[in-house]
Amino acid sequence: MEGSFDIWKILAGVAIFLLGMNMLEEALQQLAGRPFKLFLRKHTQHKLKAIGAGAVVTALLQSSSIVNLMLLAFVGSGIIQMQNGLAMMLGSNIGTTFTSWIVATIGFEFNIESFALPVTGIAGILMILLNKHSKWFQLSKFFFGFSFLFVGLNFMKTAVEAMVQQTDLSRFNEYPVLLFLLIGIIITALIQASSATIALVLAALHAHAIDLEPAMAIVLGAEVGTTIKLLLASAKGIPAKKQVALGNFLMNMIISLLLVFFLQPLTFFIHETLGVKNQVLALVVFQTLVNIISIVLFYPFLNPFGKFLSARFTQNSDETLFIHKIKPAETELALQAMQKETDHFLQLILAYCKHIFELKPEQKNGNEFYKKTPEEKYEFIKHLHGDILSFYVKMQSNHLQPEEAARFQLLISSVRNGMYAAKSLKDAWHDAVLLKNSSNDKKFAYYEESRKRTDHFITTIGKLLTAKEQAQSNADSLIALYREIIKGYTEELSHLYKQGTIDHLNETEISTIINYNRELYTAYKSLILAVKDLLLPEKEAAAFEELPGFIR
Asked: Where does the UniProt annotation place the signal sequence (predicted)?
């Protein structure tokens, strides 16, 4: 029973350590998110600078995951070139050793509880008392998370020491180092934090539960395991994100498989040449050496390696359906492809609307978009919007006829209004969830009523897109629908301001309903404008400019 208890204490220590890391990440993102992003943008224009920037920011943020996920966004948007992104990841690996050095030098050399528990207590109480949106709250959260690292480490250290006294673990040191490499990969892939894996190994090494070479193999496995999160994050992203994530995985995998066969020479170098006799410090020195060797090995080949990655994932069947098949120079075909792509874009927005309001969606076999979560659908729509805009910009270099230029202008206006609608729907969705889950009958009834209105509106718009009738018929239908929602919005506001409607609701709840109503009708209006630009010729589309607005 005692041994079982120690195992659970180890798991509790890992959980507390991970919670501390998570709090550190969240606090630092709030305290210095934008400055770090600007720092990265400024210092990633050259590969050497990118390595330094990756190391500095990761050391300060205490998380390579934040930096690498930030990096994916920069590469995906074209702000950072892939080769520089890979260089920054090499530097980020160096930055992760900062946590290991703190744990090794403070966590095992001092009485952890003497400073971790007071900091935990004071910071935790301040977090309860302070405003959650203040910097002081985030600062308290930072110290609370930092102290939790050592509380969790203390759990791991004492549990491993107790286990060593009860169990002879020396026989495990005879197993092949490749097994320990695999253990490091699996543990880190599961807990998604290489720092926690290394802290656990340091605790085992301090308690003499494991020898240095198996511990080194686990650290190499952790270097590979930490790349799994990035692979998963990029799986449904654009090709550039997949390429960077694959590059990070390959670099870590290659260096780990290479060095796992040189553990004895590296042990000799650390002990005899560098003179590091302390096993705990020797492991951290090894981790640092691994990442320095990785930089030396890969830096000369970043350009060809980047070209190799650029040839991967070149096609993405879930992105544009039509425009990626046509060269912008082929004006007539490009116009037809743009027309079809815009129609497809608006259909996806309708599907997104149906999903967030739990309406019956159409089953589109073979299209991964319809299997995505609402958040993933919105991100996909944003990426598709960017792809269409890029295609439109390329078209501007052609010598277009006036009629072609006018048609392209209407289509890009349709796409722009469609994106406005998607953004308004996303904003309305957060309020919709609050209303749907409310115990207040009036709030829930309002959600159900708005859901029925949305179903009617989306069905009507969907029929117009599917039927594609004559221009005049479409114009009349859209104008009638436009006037209908103007009237509906006005009547809804009057209804909301009546005393009977807002009884038993506080000021925040009333504001939520009014904002929700506004975003919903803004989405309706934007969708109508998007559909009219897609379906109507320039003359008929221009008639909408004389119609009154309704958002006040």
From this structure: none
